[in-house]
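Tokens help. One example:
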Amino acid sequence: MMSPMRTVIDVPDALIESLDQFGALEQRSRASLIREAITQYLKVKSIPAADEAFGLWKKRAVDGVQYQRSLRDEWGNR
């Protein structure tokens, strides 16, 4: 785990009050709730690795299957 980094953010009073109320119910600190909220947000918003890789060949002049075949042709019949 990486070492924690402190950061300063401006949060409206209404959100702080809500955090404090929820924290009291859950017996958790504001910081804990905020870390969890950021973690959940990033899980939802992050692009899975497979989605990032999809379409990598679309801008290439050579078709991916053609490229594979040319590489295999270099290997010869062994």
